[in-house]
Amino acid sequence: MTAFDLVVRSRRTVTPEGERAAAVAVRGEKIVALYDHAAPLDAAEDIDLRDLALLPGLVDTHVHVNEPGRAHWEGFASATRAAAAGGVTTILDMPLNSLPPTVNVGAFEAKLRAAAGQCQVDVGFWGGAVPGNVKELAPLRERGVHGFKCFMSPSGVEEFPPLSGSEARRALEEVAGLGGVMVVHAEDPALLGEPSGPTYREFLDSRPDKAERSAVEQVVRLAGETGARAHILHVSSAACLDVLEEARARGAAVTAETCPHYLTLAAEQVPEGETAYKCCPPIRSEANRDLLWDGLRRGVLSCVVSDHSPSPAELKAPDFAAAWGGIASLQLGLRAVWTEASRRGFGLADVVRWMSANPASMAEISGKGGIKPGNDADLVAFDPVPTGLVDATLLHHRNPVTPYHGRTLKGAVLTTWLRGRPVDGEPCGRLLLGER
């Protein structure tokens, strides 16, 4: 009987301690040990990647799957197939834009039924905090959501309305008592406007930096007053960074993420009429983008996740005022971030920290986020060198709409293993229920 089921060797194995030459030994679904790269090991399968990189599976805690109810936007089968192709082995599904939204246990059960038997990677779930459902939060947490999501401004779908200031306080008090986390879409509705016309500049002007900053200030204050743990979603504006840094220096339980599109795209590059670039909050200037990278460097922003929010092409028409606001990038996030990160002097260990370890920690997903003994054998063979053009029609997303179409990105995902098994198109993913 062989000692191990699988050994994967790489001279560029990215571990929590950094990049090193190593042989990763797997028994069953778990990583059981790391050895020297050339160590003689008895295994049923022994793969040597040589100078290709071996990464832990990425953990994307911000994905809108939209099933049930809007599976024609994106469903579990297509989303998880795209995730695996992009090196993502765990996703957390947002409580909107599915019908019904995940705001009570009945809706969560419908979500679980929709996902069952379809997923090629592991899938966990956020619950929703909306006006009037504070009594639903404890049952949702008990049933297994990893935490809760709320909006401070209109979400874009009427069935998931935003919380007022007093409602947000009450929800945060409840979340604090449950020991969970509230993830927040932070834009102040009082400082948002309607686009004055159909262009990108007019759309951008309608969602100014000050709206994000004001909302983040409110979340930081409420988190401190209620004792709740809060996480700021998709930070697009560098105007928020000093607020977040000061909160962190005070020991506030507030973390924050940004997204590949804010780190790799810029307002100056948005072609007129190309509404695939529309998202909320919006893609801002090149100078702002540089500051977001500095926020990552300093640890003010800890996670980089996709906010994959796709829609059919017809909803991206006719102009920036009317189009659906969401970026489709689940399959492309690793390549997009690596393209820009490597240009700016960051290494694969940085990318893994932002896109795997820190999201897993933020959402308290056990057994994920790093190549270390005891964790699930979620692994990615990644070639960091080649470049290639993105063809949206070849992506696994349900709808071929993405601002990355025609862009040159660096790197290639060669193989993705989920719990020691290569992802090969079969729905072998599990539904992850959070622990109380």
From TrEMBL:
EC top class, as a word? hydrolase
Domain of life, per UniProt, equals Bacteria
Q: List membrane-spanning regions.
A: none
Q: Which GO terms describe its biological process?
A: allantoin catabolic process; purine nucleobase catabolic process
Q: In which pathway does it act?
A: Nitrogen metabolism; (S)-allantoin degradation; allantoate from (S)-allantoin: step 1/1
Give any Gene Ontology cellular component. Answer: cytoplasm
EC number(s) per entry: 3.5.2.5
Q: Name one GO molecular function term.
A: zinc ion binding
Return the Pfam families for the record. Answer: Amidohydro_1
Alphabetic keyword roster: Hydrolase, Metal-binding, Purine metabolism, Zinc
Query: Taking every annotated instance into account, which residue ranges of this chain make up the domain Amidohydrolase-related?
Result: 54-423
Give cofactor(s), names only: Zn(2+)
Q: Subunit arrangement?
A: Homotetramer.
Please report which protein family the annotation says this sequence is part of: Belongs to the metallo-dependent hydrolases superfamily. Allantoinase family.
Q: Tell me the protein's name.
A: allantoinase
Q: Which organism is it from?
A: Nonomuraea diastatica
